[in-house]
Amino acid sequence: MTKHITIRPAEGTWVVRAGGAVLGESHDALELSEGEMPFVIYFPKADIAMAMLDATDHKTSCPHKGEASYFSIMSKSRTYINAAWSYEDPKPEAAAIKGYIAFYVQDGVMVEQV
Protein backbone atom coordinates (compact mmCIF):
# COMPACT_ATOMS: atom_id res chain seq x y z
CA MET A 1 0.00 0.00 0.00
CA THR A 2 1.32 3.44 -0.95
CA LYS A 3 1.50 6.17 1.66
CA HIS A 4 -1.01 8.95 1.03
CA ILE A 5 1.04 11.58 2.88
CA THR A 6 4.68 12.51 2.24
CA ILE A 7 6.45 14.88 4.63
CA ARG A 8 10.00 16.09 4.03
CA PRO A 9 12.14 19.07 5.01
CA ALA A 10 11.36 22.09 2.83
CA GLU A 11 14.54 23.25 1.15
CA GLY A 12 15.80 26.74 1.92
CA THR A 13 14.14 29.50 3.88
CA TRP A 14 10.37 30.05 3.84
CA VAL A 15 8.43 33.13 4.90
CA VAL A 16 4.74 33.81 5.55
CA ARG A 17 3.28 37.32 5.26
CA ALA A 18 -0.20 38.66 6.00
CA GLY A 19 -1.34 42.18 5.22
CA GLY A 20 2.28 43.04 4.33
CA ALA A 21 3.64 42.01 7.74
CA VAL A 22 6.01 39.07 8.17
CA LEU A 23 4.39 36.50 10.47
CA GLY A 24 7.35 34.17 10.40
CA GLU A 25 10.44 32.91 8.64
CA SER A 26 11.91 29.44 8.94
CA HIS A 27 14.81 27.28 7.83
CA ASP A 28 13.03 24.31 9.45
CA ALA A 29 9.75 24.26 7.51
CA LEU A 30 8.24 21.00 6.28
CA GLU A 31 6.72 20.26 2.88
CA LEU A 32 3.65 18.02 3.04
CA SER A 33 2.33 16.36 -0.12
CA GLU A 34 -1.04 14.62 -0.03
CA GLY A 35 -2.21 12.58 -2.98
CA GLU A 36 -2.48 14.69 -6.13
CA MET A 37 -2.94 17.98 -4.25
CA PRO A 38 -0.26 20.73 -4.36
CA PHE A 39 2.25 20.58 -1.51
CA VAL A 40 1.69 22.66 1.63
CA ILE A 41 4.43 24.30 3.70
CA TYR A 42 4.17 23.79 7.47
CA PHE A 43 6.09 26.19 9.73
CA PRO A 44 7.31 25.38 13.24
CA LYS A 45 5.07 27.36 15.59
CA ALA A 46 8.24 28.58 17.33
CA ASP A 47 9.11 30.48 14.11
CA ILE A 48 5.71 32.22 13.84
CA ALA A 49 4.50 35.37 15.64
CA MET A 50 1.64 33.44 17.24
CA ALA A 51 0.51 36.64 19.02
CA MET A 52 -0.86 37.76 15.62
CA LEU A 53 -3.05 34.64 15.41
CA ASP A 54 -6.27 33.98 17.28
CA ALA A 55 -7.57 30.42 17.74
CA THR A 56 -11.11 29.90 16.44
CA ASP A 57 -13.72 27.23 17.12
CA HIS A 58 -13.50 25.96 13.54
CA LYS A 59 -12.32 22.34 13.11
CA THR A 60 -12.02 19.98 10.17
CA SER A 61 -11.14 16.31 9.97
CA CYS A 62 -8.82 14.51 7.56
CA PRO A 63 -8.73 10.69 7.44
CA HIS A 64 -4.94 10.81 7.02
CA LYS A 65 -3.88 13.70 9.28
CA GLY A 66 -6.58 13.88 11.97
CA GLU A 67 -8.44 16.91 13.33
CA ALA A 68 -7.26 20.39 12.34
CA SER A 69 -7.59 23.42 14.60
CA TYR A 70 -7.86 26.84 12.94
CA PHE A 71 -6.56 30.34 13.58
CA SER A 72 -7.48 33.76 12.25
CA ILE A 73 -4.68 36.18 11.38
CA MET A 74 -4.95 39.71 12.75
CA SER A 75 -3.13 42.19 10.52
CA LYS A 76 -3.17 45.98 10.69
CA SER A 77 -5.56 46.23 7.77
CA ARG A 78 -7.88 43.24 8.26
CA THR A 79 -8.58 39.88 9.88
CA TYR A 80 -8.12 36.74 7.79
CA ILE A 81 -10.69 34.30 9.20
CA ASN A 82 -9.56 30.66 9.63
CA ALA A 83 -6.48 31.41 7.52
CA ALA A 84 -4.11 29.05 9.33
CA TRP A 85 -4.42 25.53 10.70
CA SER A 86 -2.50 22.98 12.72
CA TYR A 87 -2.89 19.38 13.82
CA GLU A 88 -2.42 19.34 17.58
CA ASP A 89 -2.62 15.53 17.76
CA PRO A 90 -1.99 14.24 14.21
CA LYS A 91 -2.45 10.64 13.14
CA PRO A 92 0.74 8.52 13.04
CA GLU A 93 1.18 9.00 9.26
CA ALA A 94 1.42 12.78 9.82
CA ALA A 95 3.13 12.82 13.24
CA ALA A 96 5.97 15.00 11.90
CA ILE A 97 3.66 18.06 11.62
CA LYS A 98 2.84 18.14 15.34
CA GLY A 99 3.87 21.60 16.58
CA TYR A 100 3.66 23.05 13.05
CA ILE A 101 1.19 25.41 11.39
CA ALA A 102 0.18 26.01 7.77
CA PHE A 103 -1.47 28.97 6.03
CA TYR A 104 -4.09 29.39 3.30
CA VAL A 105 -2.53 31.43 0.51
CA GLN A 106 -5.06 34.09 -0.47
CA ASP A 107 -5.29 37.78 -1.27
CA GLY A 108 -3.06 39.35 1.38
CA VAL A 109 -1.56 36.08 2.72
CA MET A 110 1.59 34.78 1.04
CA VAL A 111 3.87 31.80 1.67
CA GLU A 112 7.09 31.90 -0.30
CA GLN A 113 10.61 30.62 -0.46
CA VAL A 114 13.21 33.40 -0.07
TrEMBL record:
Occurrences of domain DUF427 (ranges): 15-104
Pfam families with a match to the protein in the record: NTP_transf_9
Domain of life, source organism: Bacteria
InterPro entries noted in UniProt: DUF427 (IPR007361), DUF427_sf (IPR038694)
Gene3D superfamilies: Domain of unknown function (DUF427)
Organism: Puniceibacterium antarcticum
Protein name from the UniProt record: DUF427 domain-containing protein
